[in-house]
Each structure stands twice: as C-alpha cells, then as structure tokens.
Design brief:
The structure is a single chain. The protein is of the alpha/beta class. It starts with a strand and ends with a strand. A hairpin with a 2-residue loop joins strand 20 (347-351) and strand 21 (354-359). Helix 1 (22-31) packs parallel to helix 7 (193-205) and helix 4 (101-108) runs parallel beside helix 6 (167-177). The protein folds into two domains: 4-19 and 234-418, Enolpyruvate transferase domain (UDP-n-acetylglucosamine1-carboxyvinyl-transferase, Chain), CATH 3.65.10; 22-231, Enolpyruvate transferase domain (UDP-n-acetylglucosamine1-carboxyvinyl-transferase, Chain), CATH 3.65.10.10. It has a four-stranded mixed β-sheet with strand order 22-23-1-24. The chain has helices at 22-31, 48-60, 88-91, 101-108, 127-135, 167-177, 193-205, 236-249, 264-272, 310-317, 338-343, 373-385, 396-399, 405-411, and strands spanning 4-7, 12-17, 39-42, 63-67, 72-76, 85-86, 110-114, 139-143, 146-150, 159-161, 183-187, 208-212, 216-220, 228-231, 250-256, 276-279, 284-287, 296-298, 322-327, 347-351, 354-359, 367-369, 389-393, 415-418. The chain has 14 helices and 24 strands. The longest helix has 14 residues, at 236-249. It binds uridine-diphosphate-N-acetylglucosamine.
Amino acid sequence: MQKLLIKGKKVLSGTISISGSKNATLPILAASILNDKKTTLKNIPLVKDVFTMIELLSFIGLKTKLHKGKNILEISKKNKKIITVAPYRIVKTMRAGVLVLGPLIAKYKKAKVSLPGGCAIGTRPVDLHLFALKKLGAKILIKEGYIYASAKDGLVGCKIKFPSISVGATENAIIAASQAKGKTILYNCALEPEIENLIVFLKKMGCKISIKKGRKIIINGTFKTSQVSQKIMFDRIELGTYLIAAALMGKKISFSNVIPKIINTEIKVLKSMGVKIKSQNKKIIVYKSLDIKSAKIKTKPYPGFPTDLQAQIMVLMSKAKGYSSIEENIFENRFMHVPELKRMGAKISTKNNIAQILGPTKLSGAEVMATDLRASVCLVLAGLIADNRTVINRIYHLDRGYENLEKKLKTCGAKITRI
Ligand code: UD1
C-alpha cells in the first residue's frame, strides 16, 4: 500500500494552478447521460472519483474519450445499447454514483442503482434523493442493496420542498426534472457553486432553468438536447486547502485559475485569523503570515463555511494563539482526523459536534492514518509544519480528490514523496 513521506518545516513559495472541481465534474458527468449529442468537458480533474464516474458512464453504454494531457473529456452515444444499471462493483467507493439515478429514470424510464456503501464521515443516506424522484412520479423499490426505480409514462413536473438541504439530492432532482413533463419548482435547495455549474451545463444543453431568491429553482422540463462544450469550474476546496498550506508555511504563493469571490467566506475567515491574503481578478496571493489568531467557525451549506475545509482549517487553528472552535453541522462523524492530529501533538478536545483547539502547539512528525479524503489532506498539512518526518498511510483517499498533490507542493519547495 502506498504511503506519503513528508519532511516538515520547509518554506513554500511559487505558484499553484488550481484544478477543475471534482464535485462539479461528477454531477455534470451524470447529466451528460441526457445528451443525445456530443458533450465536451474541459478542465476535467484527473482524480480517482472522476475516473470511477467515467467507468460508470462507459458501463452504461456511453462512449467516453479522455484526453489526459489536455484535461478534456468527450462523451457521445454512437451505436451503443444503454444499460440502465449502476453496479455495486463500480459505485461502492464513490457515493456520487447515485447521481446517475435521476438522469437514467428521466431519460430511460427505469434504473437499477446500487445503494452507496457506508462512509467514514457519517451514515449518508439517500432518502432525500428518493423523496424528490418519487414526487416526480418515480416508483422506487429497495431490494438486495439496489434502488429499483421506474416511471413507465415518464416523470411529471411538480413542487418539491426539501425537508433539509442536500447537495446531491438537489442535483439529482434538477437533472431528473429537466426531462420531466411541465414545470418543477424546487424549494430549500442547496446552492453550492458546483450546482450553478451544473445548471449552466444543462442550460447549454437546452434546458430552461433558473435560480430564484430564497433557495428556489424553477425548471421547465423536457428539451431537445444539443451539442455542448463546457469548462468545469475551479476546485474551491482544493484552493482552500492550498491557501491554508500557504498560511502555514508560505513565503509567497500565488494561485491561478480561480475566481476569488466564490470563496469569500473562506477568505474572510483566513483574514480574520491574520493570514495575509490579497485577491485580484482571477488570482489570489498569500504572503508570509506570522501572527495567526484564533477563530470560531460553524460549517454550513454554501455560502457558509464548507464542511470539506473543516479538517484543514483545524491544522491552522493549532498554530493560532488561544482557543479556536469548530462546530460541524453537516456530517455527524467528521472529526476522525482529531486523534491523528493529537498523536502529532495538537491539543484538541471534542464534544458532540464541537471541537476545541488550543494553540499554538508545536506538531511533531509521526506515522498517521488517513480516514477520508479531507482528513487525509489535513494530515498532509500537519506534516508540512511538523518537526521531522511524517508518514501518512492509506493515501488512496487523497487520490480520490486531489490532482497532482505531491507535484504541486513539491514545485513550491515541499519535501514530500510517495513510496
Ligand atoms: C456533497 C459533496 C461533499 C460535501 C457535501 C456537503 C459531492 C460529490 N460531494 O456531498 O464533498 O461534503 O456535499 O457539502 O459534491 N442527507 C440525508 N439524506 C439524503 C442526502 C443527504 O440525510 O438523501 C444528509 C447527509 O447525511 C448530510 C447532509 O444531508 O448530513 C448533507 O449531505 P449532502 O449535501 O447530500 O452531501 P453530498 O451530496 O453527499
């Protein structure tokens, strides 16, 4: 099994180009199932979850051609029979596999999709996805670990109010409603930038859809699909992760291929912690930041502070003077990185969904275990500031969502090796 070795305390400087967003790519790939014409996607991140979704599309019967050197993916449908199944074998490692349910049922009137497997950060049910699809007229049966969905006469537009906010359920509902007869109004939607990216994609394909004030999305369903080409937005979580790396160890690091206003909340929090950060049009620069101050954050749906950046900012909090706190409001079990950070010397206590971090503490290198994607990268950040050597096990989690992580950090002067 591969490991990462990090020799800490190296000062970082240079430029990091931020990759395309994994979380924008996955629903757009699912939505491409609707397209009878060619789909071209640019700025595709070359990460494991994206490869898994491409494998799933190929299994379903789409023709996919990935130009790795150019980060471009072409998808078409020529001469292939469509199989409306997402098998456990493919989707077991990636929850987003359930996103093909909406497009398959909407376009092909039936689907058999494996229930996503358990997940380290919480139970992560799919009841909200199924709730929305049932409202649109799908008949759902759960049997032998699979969701069997059918809609013999097609889906029909309706009003759906989500009892709580879910990114994936909003995406599945939008994609399905785009091929339902008539108008659908979705209330209490997630409005992550990746959802806006999905909406831009659907509009380019021909769908009539608009976002209204108050977490409302209106979709006028059924459209004739047309050829579409789209650039995937930048990965705001990857950017946030490297901004924190720069705040921890950077002399001067510039970030390109980004739109700073999308991460306003994160920039405000970092500035309040004393991070010297300057944003320009499509660029952000972080300068050496010495006096890190404590902060109190609560994770919330966008535009709140993202749960996907919670583990990483905890490392910065370990460098801040005094008590910081994190209230995790999205997932019930997302402090699995805490015991590993504590083994490196961090002073953290947790009670229910709140973590308290006392700083500043000197971290020391240790052998640690990655438990999920964001927890893994937080251990990389901890390794960058720790004395001596840190060894990170189970790094396959990192490969699910970070493109060229070692290369990007090495170019800025980090000592990081995969063995
Ligand atoms: C997406 C992101 C993930 C991020 C999360 C929250 C992708 C591929 N993944 O995940 O990186 O951490 O949003 O920003 O975009 N829930 C239910 N029932 C459901 C669905 C969700 O109870 O049917 C709960 C979940 O358990 C969780 C909360 O709702 O507590 C939010 O989950 P959701 O927004 O759906 O996250 P994902 O779409 O899975």
